[in-house]
Amino acid sequence: MRSLLVVVSYHHKNTEKIAKIFAKVLGAEIKTPQQIKPEELKGYELIGFGSGIYRSKHHQILINFAGQLPKVNNKKAFIFSTCELRLLQLMEDNSMIIFLKVMQYLEKHFNLKVISLSVRLIVQVGIRTNF
Predict the structure, then answer these.
(1) Residues of the chain above pLDDT 90, percent
(2) Which residues pair with 25 in a beta bridge?
(3) pLDDT, mean of residues 22-47
(4) Residues in contact with 11: Cβ distance below 8 Å, sequence separation at least 6, in sequence order
(5) Which domain holds residue 20?
(6) pTM (whole model) above 0.85
(7) Exposed e or buried b per residue across 84-114, where buried means at least 16 C-beta atoms within 10 angstroms of its C-beta
(8) Which of 24, 56, 83, 131 has the fewest CB atoms within 10 Å, measured from its CB?
(9) pLDDT of residue 107
(10) Exposed, middle or buried: residue 118 (CB in 10 Å: 0-12, 13-18, 19+)?
(11) What CA–CA distance (Å, rounded) separates 32 from 43?
């Protein structure tokens, strides 16, 4: 399956690190939005979009790129993100409990193995077949 990861990664390059792991497993290419045109995505069967979280949302460059994409059917896509959450914040707002429940759901329903990289790095993955 020809796969591509469209990634925006700044600051600590954590999103790029995660993308490299995905790319190794999927045999995928990694490109930034500046390196690919929306129409070129037609040549891929699986496309991942990822960035860090900035002010509670994905990087604006990735959002702008996604806004240029044509509507297609029968393509597989997923989105992932990385963000830093301090342990105290996780304990105060129950984010860790929610995160663990999401991970359990992904393991059960998508046959994914979740590997904890660190307390500070959280990866979110969602899969859509139509976008």
Answers:
(1) 34
(2) none
(3) 93
(4) 52
(5) 3-84+118-128
(6) no
(7) ebeeeebeeeeebeeeeeebeebeeeeeeee
(8) 56
(9) 66
(10) exposed
(11) 16
Q: Which residue has the higher pLDDT, 55 or 68?
A: 68
**Averaged pLDDT for residues 104-121:** 52
The C-alpha atoms of residue 47 and residue 30 are separated, in whole angstroms, by 10
Q: HEC states along 77-88?
A: EEEEEEECCCHH
CA–CA distance, 104 with 89 (Å, rounded to integer): 21
**Which is it for the CA torsion 74, 65, 10, 88, positive or negative?**
negative
Instruction: Note whether residue 45 is domain-resident.
Output: yes
Would 50 be classed as within a structural domain?
A: yes
What does the block give as tokens for 89? 């914040």
Distance, CA of 102 to CA of 64 (rounded, Å)? 27
